[in-house]
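Hi,

I'm pasting everything inline rather than attaching a file, because the server keeps stripping attachments. The sequence lines come first, and each chain or strand is labelled.
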Amino acid sequence: MAVSGAPAGAIAHTEIAVAVTDGRVLPRLGVEAGRLFDALRLAPPPSARSLSRLHLGNEFCERLIPSPTLLRRAIGVADAAGLALTLATPAVPDQGLAKLRRLFRLLLDGAEVVVNDYGVLRLLAREFPALEPVAGRQLCKMIKDPRLPTEQWARLNPPGLGSPEFEALLGRFGIRRAEVDVPPFARPADLRVGGLALSVHAPFGYAVRGRVCRIGSLRFDGAAKFRSVQACAKECLRWSCRLTRPADRGNRDLDSFQRGNSIFYRHDGNMQQAMWHAAARGWIDRIVLPGDWREPDFGVLTEEDRHADHGPD
Amino acid sequence: MRITAPISRAEEIGPMLAAGADELYFGVVPLGWAERFGVSTVNRRTFGNLEDGDGLRRAVGAIRDGGGEASLALNGQQYTAERLELLLGLAERFAAAGGNAVIVGDMVLLDALDRAGLDLRLHISSIAACRNGEAALFYQDFGAARVVFPRHMTLAEMADVAAAAPELEFEAFVLNDGCLFDEGVCHTIHLPMQLGGPICMDSYELDYRRQDGHAPSASEQAALDANDEAYKRWAWHKFSCGFSTTGDGQPFGPCGLCAIPFLAAHGISTIKIAGRETPTERKLKSLGLVRDTLDRLEGGADPAALADFARSLRAGPGRCAEGYMCYYPEVMHEA
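And the predicted assembly:
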């Protein structure tokens, strides 16, 4: 896939964050953004930039909620590297709320928490008002089907994000920032949301998340597979798979892959351009790059890439 | 315990109430919607909607005259501000006609309906994916009277939520229409079948890689292939066993009949039959399965005997034993 260039000055004022699910990545975390852009085959920034924020946690699976030990370690790593910290959280049952409550107690005042569950938002507002809630991608709903054949399909159900009503509702709970993906056939104006600060995940967007996890069932047999709650071995840290459709159907699809319980797509060149143009206009002030839990690499790997993250022992 | 069941045509109202439904839910495309927005999708169902205007008034009247309650599905994941305007107008007409409840998936619409103060109960759709007690209380703060649990929750999780929010009513799926992913956070479109259909039914080929970039070893690939074959079988069950029926027309597909005693004992007041777009016969057969099971429970049957009865309705225990057709496989697994 061709790398699209960013317009000059596009990210001069755009914060670059790295998202990490697997704690084993933390020791190798650098603060220089360019190498991460290269590894992701994303348009490089026009000038040397540093990462300024660490997103810890996973938005898609309650099994990947970090332990208190890992969170403490991440706080230390972030502090040493001069990075701000954001904790990303998934939708959870009540047992997951209890886990998150323990983590929230460890965060410093002002730390961001990405929420993808209105129950988590209510918990934050009631018990942890000093933390900064951020509306996650699963609250900011929009059509992001990587198979859409034309732009017309993408416009059938425009997103409600950016409406004054939605922003006012989020504002009642102290939300001042939202996170989104770049949808297929995006135009720069699709990434303008009015009164909220906006983070954009790149170069992958999520299309669908499930609770049942195919790869998480790998070690189970028969009726024990594909259950809502599964004591998986976190196979998603080790495996991902490319998804392709027959050419007669899928020759215009965005490159797609499944990681754990979710399907993702890679931005095409036009979508990247839309993102950079939105950044240049100041509509996006943060880009979040995946440090792990991302697309499998089907190309030639450097030795460094090969050891960037690895599966369970 | 009450049964809520779908309709897609006014002609279904009488037969469904006579067959034992307590509540009927349906969708309506607001007047002017298709002309204004160029699309008829309002409530996650393109087809199978009742008419607005006089048709809506007559349908609600017929439901009430038949002793039932009427619920209007306004359960899109999200709407733009200009679409909300038409939906609020529809809700007003529904309330004026004597409708009982609206089923809502979008927070902004819920907030608007709460502030509008219509004489309607607000039910939180499964689309809103309420999975914990705090979320239930969040929706209650916005005027919700009932939460419809999303798919892929365990019975124990539902019990936790119901216990945390005792002032709310709860509703759970017990029959039909599986979803492989989580519909509340599925940001795809059910494309026409010639373009691939729903993404969960599309014909993807899978090419696994370890995160270090290596392809699987032969033994790893064999394990992955076996897992994928099992997943296809699970998906087939979730899609009504290839959209088939038993010899006497009973529907296959996702089922939680044997969990009804647990649901009744843990604060779930309403059980839901899915399938708005299915033919009338399938709706009636589905309702018969649920009504028979619930009648036995309310007649004093013990849970074990009831579970045996429920399994006997599903064309033999084999399908139940595999667990892939179950909304709540833990009932079989733990038994």
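Chain B has one domain: 2-184+251-334.

If the labels don't parse on your end, tell me and I'll reformat.
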